Amino acid sequence: MTELPRKAAARTARLAALPLGYAGRSALGLGKRMGGAPADAVMSEIQQRTAEQVFRTLGELKGGAMKFGQALSVLEAAFPDEMVAPYRENLTRLQDSAPPMPTQTVRDQLTKDLGPDWAEDLVWLDGGPAAAASIGQVHRGRWADGRDVAVKVQYPGAGEAMMSDLKQLTRLAKSVGPLIPGVDIKPLIAEVQDRARDELDYTLEAEAQRAFAEAFRDDPDIVIPDVVAVGETTLVTEWLESPHSLAHIIREGTQEERDHYGNLFVRFLFAGPARTGMLHADPHPGNFRILPGRNGGLGRLGVLDFGAVARLDGQGLPEAMGTLLRIAANADRDALEEGLRAEGFIKDRIRIDPDLLLDYLAPFVEPTKVESFRFTREWMREQFQRINNPKEPTYTIALKLNMPPNYMLIHRTWLGGIGVLSQLEAEAPFNAILTEFLPGFADPDPEAAGA
Questions:
Q1: What DSSP designation does 240 have?
Q2: What is the structure's pLDDT at 218?
Q3: pTM metric for this prediction
Q4: Collapsing DSSP states into helix, strand and coil, what is residue 443?
Q5: Pick from 51, 76, 65, 50: nearest CA to 98
Q6: Nearest to 254 by CA among 305, 299, 288
Q7: Domain boundaries along the sequence of the chain
Q8: Architecture of the domain whose range is 103-158+197-238
Q9: How far is CA 10 from CA 7, 15, 162, 164, in A?
Q10: For residue 254, which of 15, 114, 208, 280 sits 20 to 30 Å off, Cα-Cα?
């Protein structure tokens, strides 16, 4: 048996052990309750240990396992209140870190990708990683022209590991589900699978990052590092000097900082498609860095990791998307249903309750109906539970709606963005941002229409 299959078998065994561990802890918890221990204390202990096992395993395996864990971390604000505390620390830990790979492995990858003389261009390389993520880790270095650079190197076998993990998680979706109540695991895994191959292609990532860097070059608040060099599994970009990510603001930021960076975060998500025809589709907080402000003011926002990008045919976000949001905000039931049918969200012969439809769309529509909207964990949990609870009337709407392929990644990114804003508990002028950047959202000018 070769090395790779043995590793694959070991990864599969560790993932398969997750539901078994939960079952064992639940059985132990039942015994403690029968022995007189309070039910709440027993359940809290089970959740704490389960959280630690789930996210430690996902983080240590990297690959698709950790990518799935990071996708979950974005939705942390939506988790039921009784389980938020034990899961929060383990979820957010995945947004910034993972165990490192050996320095010699990094040097071998650089030789393979940049050639045997790579050290003539990369004149200094820090031996320890500055950051580690799902499919690669980042080292600080210095380029021959004097620029500090970030050297992202893909883990050997990352592609095989990622796809193997995601296949295994798909098979385990039903049994893993109880570990993380309130989250529909299967479609989340499917979405990660759909974009995994693009994230493994560093040449494609470099192309996207160059486009975003050019589009935001003169922006006073958003900073995107330029690409310096690229190989099959190596990406060298300019270094961003930043002590913290957005996850730090979520944990420790003042309300002023939460509002400020939440505003910049949502502005970037919507300005990106308008300026580049592409959507940055990986909005977990570890990809957004806090940079010093100008003239002593609040800081700027640095943006990293362009591996997951929705390419929108160079046209930006669909105009129909903005139009439908405006119609929903105005509660025009007939026009909303007609528009959703035209875009393929409601298929022929499907009958739908227009009032329940408006209720179902509330998480996306409510923030657009006021001048400034405060996102909170409580609001996010209410929306999440209302939509995903089979006992709620709106639950039936999800079974009737169809997600057109061209909206799939947009929908997931928007949902993830709302999750991050809710973790920040940020207040943002959502309506004004959409009016500026989302085609079709602004009210049509009646005078222009009648001219």
A1: P
A2: 94
A3: 0.76
A4: coil
A5: 65
A6: 299
A7: 3-96+166-195, 103-158+197-238, 319-446
A8: 2-Layer Sandwich (3.30)
A9: 5, 9, 14, 11
A10: 280
